[in-house]
Amino acid sequence: MRKSTSLSHKKPDQRREELPENRKKLLRAHAIPSSSEPSQAPLFVDQPMPHQEPPTGEAAKPSFP
Q: What ranges does the record give for the region Disordered, renumbered to this chain (predicted)?
C-alpha cells in the first residue's frame, strides 16, 4: 500500500512540475516576440535605463575630463 501511495504522489508531482516548466517556456516565448514589439520593448528597456542613465551619465561626464 505504501508503494501505491508513493506512485500516486509521484504522478501528480511530476505533472505539477511540468506546469511551471511549461509556464517558463511560455514566458520565454513571450519575452522573445516582446523584443520585436515596439510597444513592450521600449517599456522594458526604458525603465531600467533611465534610472541608471542620469546618475551614471552625469557622474561619468564630469569625471572623464
A: 1-65
Structure confidence by residue, pLDDT tens digits, 4-34: 555 555 555 555 556 667 666 666 665 555 4
How many Å apart are CA 18 and CA 1, to the nearest integer?
A: 26
Cell of residue 15, nine digits: 505533472
In angstroms, rounded to a whole number, what is the distance separating the alpha carbons of residues 21 and 7? 21
DSSP, collapsed to helix, strand or coil, labels residue 47 as: coil
Which distant-in-sequence residues (6+ apart) come within 8 Å of 41 by Cβ?
Answer: 34, 35
What does the alpha-carbon distance between residue 20 and residue 13 come to, in Å, rounded to a whole number?
A: 11
The percent helix, strand, coil of the chain (3-state, each to 5) is 90, 0, 10
Q: Give the global pTM.
A: 0.20
